[in-house]
# Entry
Amino acid sequence: MKVIAYLHSDPLLEETPDAMLWGWDIDRVYQDFAGENLDRAQLQQLIIDCDNQPAQLLIRRLEELGNSIAEIRDRLSQLESLNIQVITIESEELSATTLQQLQDLQYNQKSRRIRQGHARNRVKTLAPPGKAPYGYRRSRNRYILDRATAPVAKEFFDHFLLYGSLRGAVRFLEKKYAKKISVSTGQRWLTNPVYRGDLEYQTGETIPDTHPAILSRDEAAQIDRLLRRNRRLPTRTASAPRSLAGLVTCGECQSGMTVTRVTSRRKTKKEYLYLRPMQCPKQCKAIAYEEILQCTIDRICEDLPRAVSEARTPDIDAIKSRIESAIAQKQAILDQLPPLIETGILDAETADLRSYKLRSEIAQLQTKLSQLPPVNLKAIAQTVSIPQFWLDLSEAERRFYFREFIRQIELIRTDTGWQLKLNFIF
# Structure
């Protein structure tokens, strides 16, 4: 069997090794030097020369085969596949499988160090890695408001709060500020805790009040209610200009009804609105939109107070009081941590971890608090049961209040005409 040797050295770090250092009878010595344009060119030539020729290869150390564990492993695998036996004279012999295990261990240790660094940053409530969200910029690992973009984000949220339409808010942003975002991006903005002054990490834990907020707590709670309400509606009807869009269904064929517009051929170009079933096997006739709108208002004024009084709603005030009390208790514990550090009872690392856990629990309680419905439902029902209240609203405002209370409007046809049945959310 042919015996060959390979040397790789760096002239900047060591003297050029003697090619006859082996003490064996060597058929040929291949030698490379670091820094050459063709690094390890002689090693490649060795592999070509030994193709399908079993041989013994002498090397000083495994690191001479490559610049990384992955490269050394690949070279060992290649040499083993050519039936070349590798013998090291200054270190222990290792197989490609063992090197793969070493590489996996090295990767896992590096990954663990990175995750430990991220965990320490979480405990200190520092901003996670990556680009700051729109409306913010980084300052010493924390978010601060960007004076140029924060007002743009704020107007996006204000428009959604006013009209309850995500697509409408996206179009508003593009029209006024030439800021073009997708609907999915707008959806992420509305639900991102960052805009509420909170940080959410990959673990799913949220830490409140870590940086200046663009949205107040009340505004954030209202956005959550609007998003939950819009999920019940058919696609795109949340941004429809008409207040009854997506709410009316035909009681006979159970088909949803859409708003259609008809313009007269006369010079006045008067516009007429109708509600007609979208998929009706019985070809039910369309009905004037204004008639159904007025009838809906009449039914709300008559049925809503009675429905609220009969509804078995939980004591929202008591639930809210319990949650606020739990938040106050945890906040009191948080306030006790700095004195405990000063007196030496707690070290800074333990206090940071305890603070992180408490603030995460406070964030969960604040989320529950924001999901509670308006507390004084009966008073609200009395206000919206006045006909003049509805007549003074625009279509967009009526759309907002209709969807706040009504789940569905069922149009029931009779022998003498039709009547409406309102299905309230509560």
